[in-house]
């Protein structure tokens, strides 16, 4: 009987310590997972399609080509869009998105810093101040 109790105790202890522990992620990492995937199997990038645009409070009617515009964010920090631009992205906090685009001809890098207004599994809303005022881009998830 002692052997049975001893083996049961050892088995329970082994089961207890072999359980996987989940790491708690930060808000910024959670937002990165939504933007570009978790990096796990078949979840290494997300494609976002432009849904609408507001400039200085006025809605802009999108052309057929603009309605097909997409941005693809890869989990490892690269991005490309349907216009042929590519570069890297960084999320310095849960509400800031920096996109660094490299000109393929001159190798000059341009950094655009966006405020993230909304980011969830279905939509991405970012805004930036430009030449005509505040640009608000509304994207929907495409994949």
Notable characteristics:
143 residues, alpha+beta, eight-stranded antiparallel β-barrel, 46% strand, elongated
Q: Can you walk through the features of this model?
A:
With 143 residues, this protein is of the alpha+beta class. The protein has a single domain, classed as Domain of unknown function DUF4822 (Lipocalin), CATH 2.40.128. 22% of the residues lie in helices and 46% in strands. It has helices at 2-18, 27-36, 64-67, and strands at residues 45-55, 58-60, 70-74, 78-81, 86-93, 96-102, 109-119, 123-130, 133-141. An eight-stranded antiparallel beta barrel has the order 1-3-4-5-6-7-8-9. A hairpin with a 2-residue loop joins strand 1 (45-55) and strand 2. It is elongated and about 80 Å long. The termini are far apart. The mean pLDDT is 87.
List the helices and strands and how they pair.
Layout: H1 2-18, H2 27-36, E1 45-55, E2 58-60, H3 64-67, E3 70-74, E4 78-81, E5 86-93, E6 96-102, E7 109-119, E8 123-130, E9 133-141
Antiparallel strand pairs: 1-2, 1-3, 1-9, 3-4, 4-5, 5-6, 6-7, 7-8, 8-9
Radius of gyration of CA atoms, rounded to a whole number = 22 Å
Give the oligomeric state: single chain
Overall pLDDT score = 87
Main sheet overview: 8 strands, antiparallel, barrel
How would you describe the shape?
Answer: elongated
With strands numbered from the N-terminus, the spatial order across the biggest sheet is 1-3-4-5-6-7-8-9
H/E element order: HHEEHEEEEEEE
Poorly predicted parts: none
Work out the number of β strands. 9
Q: Which architecture does the CATH hierarchy give at level 2? A: Beta Barrel
What's the N-to-C terminus distance?
59 Å
């Amino acid at each position: 009987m002692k052997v049975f109790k001893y083996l049961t105790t050892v088995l329970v202890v082994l089961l207890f310590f072999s359980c996987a522990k989940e790491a708690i992620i930060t808000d910024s990492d959670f937002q990165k997972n939504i933007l570009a995937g978790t990096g796990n199997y078949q979840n290494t990038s997300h494609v976002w399609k432009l849904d609408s645009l507001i400039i200085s409070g006025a809605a802009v009617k999108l052309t057929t080509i603009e309605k097909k515009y997409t941005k693809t964010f890869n989990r490892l920090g690269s991005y490309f869009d349907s216009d042929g631009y590519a570069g890297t992205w960084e999320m310095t906090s849960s509400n800031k998105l920096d996109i660094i685009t490299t000109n393929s001809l001159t190798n000059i890098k341009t950094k655009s810093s966006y405020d993230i207004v909304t980011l969830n599994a279905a939509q991405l809303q970012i805004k930036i101040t430009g030449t005509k005022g505040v640009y608000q881009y509304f994207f929907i998830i495409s994949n």
